Amino acid sequence: MRAKDAQRLGTIRLLMAAMKQKEVDERMVLEDSHIVAIVDKLIKQRKDSIEAFTKANRQDLVDQEASELLVLEQYLPPRLSLDEVKAEVATLIERLGARSAADMGKVMAAAKTQLAGKTDMTMVSQVVKAMLGS
Predict the structure, then answer these.
(1) Residue 33 confidence (pLDDT)
(2) Residue 82 contacts by C-beta under 8 Å, 6 or more apart in sequence?
(3) Which PANTHER family is this protein grouped with (predicted)?
(4) For 39, phi and psi rounded to 5 degrees?
(5) Cα–Cα dist 114/85, whole Å
(6) How many structural domains compose the chain?
(7) pTM for this one?
(8) N or C: which end of the chain has fewer CB within 10 A?
(9) What is the CATH classification number for the domain harbouring 124?
(10) Full domain range(s) for residue 15
(11) What is the dihedral of CA 70, 73, 74, 79, to 10 degrees?
């Protein structure tokens, strides 16, 4: 507020409102993992909006969503690199004995519990598809 950065302030207020809404809706005290999940959800919404606004040729809205995205990304813990994700997925595939694309659901379920909050699950899905040959 003191820096007069209205865009950043608005984004932080949006994040705080989403956190408060989750607390009220589910009558719980949020833990770090819940907050990371909320930030991930808001980031995914921004990316989807950027894609839609780009298709609609609305650069003003793309710029607004992109600036919100940059602010939100600052509140995430460091993410795993692509190589680290590949190593984790390879370990999961070996541990679960997955052989084909039919096993993708089983691998993704295990990956979600192990990697949620550490990386973008879309990237994990792409890596699993590539490794299982689908």
Answers:
(1) 83
(2) 123, 127
(3) ALTERED INHERITANCE OF MITOCHONDRIA PROTEIN 41, MITOCHONDRIAL
(4) -65, -40
(5) 11
(6) 2
(7) 0.76
(8) N
(9) 1.10.10.410
(10) 6-73
(11) -140
